[in-house]
Specification:
single chain; mainly alpha; Rhopdopsin 7-helix transmembrane proteins; Arc Repressor Mutant, subunit A; 2 domains; 69% helix
């Protein structure tokens, strides 16, 4: 019982597996939020859990001998997850962004590398007899891997990086659209997911470096410490999975996506806007003050004006030269200025003023106020107080 089975690096991999599996099971039974997103995130986590398990089986001294005794067929089985985890992360990102997300026929192309690798694996491993498998595994040396195997590994890491880049492109496109749909973007902001995607991109780039380092060390005799690069990736994964669990639980259950077709207008589209529509918008904003609603969205306002969200977005973008976020919060700043000018509000807190003007984010209120007025809300109130005293 005094034998040390695992070193620190093995324990990091085991913790990563534990986190992924436990959180995946939780998501599959979680009743709140987007069920489709929960399932896709669970699939991502389960496939990612298989990767450190594959590492332990193939490179962990304690695991390797134990698994050989159980069944050589277990080797390389969990390595199939490399071809799946990046695909599931891409689908999870899309399900978070788009309200009507569903898998399309062309999405099946992303599973082609996985299927091809399964066919390859069946032919080069599972068709081999048991005694030959044991002999191969018992005498295995990393340096003796065939060249084609290294090329497959490099292609695999490049494919994972490609899927990660697609995730980043989707998130970039989303961030370009949300200000045309929402006046308060804090609840729909996916910066946390973008940071995580960039983190996983780093891991995949590191995996490519590991593959290239192995090429360099074993094919060209230029020694590069690929093991250290791999350890960096293992420790980073543990951190990213922990962060993913925290943020996905905190935000995904209340998150609202956008339509995949969006409402962003083309700068080349110069078709005229009906002046009557502009008059109706201005009159409604003046009389009804819909911007006082903290939860106002483009769809809400379009419904109140009895027009389509697309036509409203076109009018705001082309006539007012603003996106929806700027248009609504501009009215809220005007409202807050009027509130700050009232002597009865001289002792009212800024949070109260902000709330009465329709803001639900102090950061947005302060940033927008300074941008449009040139002063902070506190400075503006003080300036007005001085002018009132001089007038008296």
């Amino acid at each position: 019982m005094n034998t040390v089975l695992f070193n620190t690096h093995d324990i990091v991999l085991l913790i990563t597996i534990y986190q992924c599996v436990l959180f995946a099971l939780f998501l599959l039974t979680f009743k709140k939020g987007n069920k489709q997103s929960n399932i896709l995130l669970a699939l991502f986590l389960l496939s990612y859990a298989a990767i450190p398990l594959d590492t332990l089986i193939n490179y962990g001294a304690a695991f390797r001998a134990y698994v050989i005794d159980i069944s050589p067929n277990i080797f390389y089985f969990f390595g199939n997850a490399y071809w799946l985890e990046s695909v599931f992360l891409l689908f999870y990102v899309r399900s978070m962004i788009y309200k009507e997300f569903s898998l399309k026929r062309q999405d099946a192309l992303l599973f082609v590398p996985f299927l091809l690798y399964c066919i390859y694996e069946v032919n080069i491993w599972y068709m081999v007899d048991h005694s030959s498998q044991v002999a191969i595994l018992s005498n295995y040396q990393v340096a003796e891997e065939p060249l084609y195997s290294r090329f497959i590994g490099l292609f695999r890491e490049c494919f994972r990086l490609f899927c990660g880049v697609l995730c980043l492109i989707e998130l970039q496109g989303y961030q370009a659209k949300i200000k045309d749909k929402f006046a308060n973007i804090e609840s729909v902001d996916l910066t946390w997911l973008k940071i995580l995607v960039i983190g996983f991109l780093f891991i995949r780039a590191d995996a490519i470096l590991v593959s290239l380092a192995m090429f360099s060390s074993f094919e060209f005799d230029v020694i590069i410490d690929y093991e250290r690069l791999g350890l960096i990736s293992n420790y980073t994964v543990l951190l990213l999975i922990s962060v993913l669990i925290f943020f996905s639980l905190r935000f995904s259950s209340v998150f609202k996506g956008i339509e995949s077709n969006g409402t962003v207008t083309s700068p080349l589209d110069k078709s005229p806007i009906d002046p009557r529509l502009i008059d109706n918008i201005l009159l409604y904003m003046k009389n009804e003050k819909p911007y006082l609603n903290h939860l106002l969205t483009l769809d809400n306002l379009a419904n109140q004006l009895s027009i389509s969200p697309r036509h409203l977005s076109l009018a705001i973008n082309r006539h007012f030269k603003q996106n929806f976020f700027e248009f609504i919060n501009g009215y809220r700043i005007d409202e807050s200025k009027q509130l700050l000018q009232l002597s009865v509000n001289s002792r009212v807190t800024m949070l109260k003023i902000m709330d009465q003007a329709g803001f639900n984010s102090k950061a947005t209120f302060n940033t927008f106020f300074k941008k449009l007025v040139g002063l902070t809300p506190t400075q503006y109130r003080k300036e007005h107080s001085k002018s009132d005293i001089k007038a008296a």
